[in-house]
Records
---
Amino acid sequence: MASIISPLERAERVAADREAVTCGGLRLTYAQVADRCRRLGGALAGLGLKRGDRVAVVGPNCHRYLELYQGVPGAGMIIVPLNARYAAAELNYALADAGARVLFTGREVPDLPQCVEHVFDLGAGYEALIASAPALPFAGAGEDDVAGLMYTGGTTGGSKGVMLSHRNLLANAGHFQWVWPFAPETRWLVAAPLFHAAGSVAVLATTWQAGHQVLLAAFDPARALDAMAAHRVTHTLLVPSMLAALSEEQLARPRALPELRGISHGGSPIATETLRRAHAAFPAIELLHLYGATETAPIVTGMRHEETLLDDPRIRSCGQAVPGVEVALRGLDDEPVTWGEVGEVLVRGPNVMLGYWNRPQQTGAALTEGWYRTGDLGYLDATAHLYLVDRAKDMIVSGGENVYGIEVEDALYQHEAVLEAAVFGVPDQRWGEAVYAVVVPRHAVEPEALIDHCRTLIAGYKTPKHIELRTEPLPKSAAGKVLKRELRAPFWEGRAEAIAGA
């Protein structure tokens, strides 16, 4: 029966001596990775862990993290990758919620919950643990067994453990290979953090084809480009803020990247202007838009060759549902909407999560007759291309009109002075909510000039009523997503009913 370890088993059979991983100055073959994963399983069994027990990891990307991601579920246990930027309280909440018995960590974690029986450094401690452990055969996990608990959500007490099965993760790996060609020659740069779907999205697909993975401990545009050049990287995935930074660095200090074939992006909406600059920086490569969620393991739709669509209306689309996945839209009355009408995006397929760990009520709200309710708003065109307009919780209602922040941000990005932009609603006595923008400019520019620019592109009710200029980068999550909630929160402080939906 296929499980998350099946891609590694295949790679070991067909290409045991091929290099699998580069991490700093270390290179490992598939035979070595498979042996280390088996010894990891043996070490965990020696600690008394059994099938279904949870093993958590928090730390930077590294080859050991990659082994935990595959080897823990390969031993029949459940991997719990945790956000490296969690505060101690958030981290301990997730550990207790998951009931993790073992923690591998690259940082100090005070006041650990009682469920954590063993703590190992994600370095020397890990190496010492597996050094003398027996290499046990991989367990025969069931396809519907939980392979990973992926925590999503923001505040302490609010994060939820997304239960992804072996089937979910293998289905995603298959879907990715339908969308984009993976091959033994693939050299994938893991630039986003592995605790996030953007970092782990290609692990199994690359491994299944016995490709090569190059790991960055943390994203930095200059180091990423240097790694691409040094290790002949062919493909990667970045969130939009990473792609924007990478493009700026390449335009300022170009590197020769003859092996680079494609850059995919996902994790959050992207402005067309960001894609234009990416094409200017990397004119010979393919751009691929992927849309998904942690709950969908993650890929839902794909749009290939965006570089050829920069002046086509479809550039605003995130593509069509990948083979094996269904997308539907429902209105406020939970009835289907016709193409062109905005509704909530629902997803069905073998990649959809089992549910939220220990949260039956929230699971019931998110899963309806096999459909996952994403909370994203969008519409479909006549050829089933999906266009996202906003998160339901981020939509601005100003004077009775719906305003979608993505559209306003796209207008702002068309001004050459705009480096970063975030748009959200703030309280307004007259309109209920007013459109507010925070902009990080490339050079000096007046807010009024940006407002006038927007008026030439979008309706007056969509145009920002106020633009705040900042010199510091916008706040971002560890995965590189702009944290609108942090920008919005001061304006809604004391308005509990608004913050509850933020």
---
Amino acid sequence: MDAWAWWALIALAFAVGEVATTTLVLAMLTGGAAAAAVVSLTGVDAPVQLVVFAVVSVLLVLVARPVAKRHLLNPIAMRSGVAALVGTEAIVIESVDGSDGRVKLAGEIWSAKSYDGESRLGVGTPVYVVAISGATALVAER
């Protein structure tokens, strides 16, 4: 059997093992074995194939695995309703201060107050929504 076929079998074995363990280590070794299989198809010697396997595997474990784990462990935050407006941009259409004002936010007119309670924001000023309190947007200048 050719060397590339052995590397492919090793990659398959690591992949099956990854399904059983879900640690992402064997998945990275699968990538290393696959890289070695590709290199063996070019006709390089076995020691070079082993070096490619080792280098690719180590790089994947050190670089790709932490990123993959972070994505698996931290689900995407779903914001809906008024919570989805926090952080978005609005435009002041009536002067905003610590007690009153109006902004155009997501195509609608909202009552607004300055977030710090002291700032005065003039008409046309781009602001961002820091929080929503009832039906009032608490905004700050960008």
